[in-house]
Amino acid sequence: MDKQIATSVFESLASGIRLDVFRLLVKTGPEGLVAGEISGLLSLPPTNLSFHLKALSQAGLISVEQQGRFQRYRANMTLMRELIAYLTDECCNGQPEQCLDSESQTACCEAVPIALNFDKLR
After folding, report:
1. Which one in 11, 45, 59, 117 has a CA-CA gap of 20 to 30 Å to 3?
2. Topology (CATH level 3) of domain 1-110
3. What spatial distance separates the first Cα and last Cα of the chain, rounded to whole Å?
4. 36-51 pLDDT, tens per residue?
């Protein structure tokens, strides 16, 4: 994965609604969901959801398959894994297995509490 693709993916997930939709589709796995199910589970109006599904699709984060009158949406798990690999590729001086192993995580990365001020983001 290159930086431009990673940036595009992050820009798409920067919307709270799109992040919720993507996480829901990851949770449901390969069976995916039709738009009406997503709308109902997340309490989103269909027109609003349609806009966000299009953005996720354009970023490559989800795929869509026509099934009769319905469209079934699925998370692109391959892209998700590639993004995680991109983020951790050079972790711990090029030894990402140390960062991903919870037992050795403290050896690699000191646990530093991060204080985020979410009020500034609103």
Report:
1. 117
2. Arc Repressor Mutant, subunit A (1.10.10)
3. 31
4. 999 999 999 999 999 9
Among candidate residues 26, 13, 20, the one with its CA nearest the CA of residue 87: 13
> Please, which residues have CB within 8 angstroms of residue 22's CB and are 6 or more apart in sequence?
13, 56, 61, 62, 75
Query: 78, exposed or middle or buried, with CB in 10 Å at 0-12, 13-18, 19+?
Result: exposed
- The residue whose two tokens read 């894994």 is 81
Q: Per-domain residue ranges for the chain?
A: 1-110
Signed CA dihedral, 50, 54, 60, 61: sign only: negative
pTM of the model: 0.78
- The Cα 61–Cα 18 span in angstroms is 10
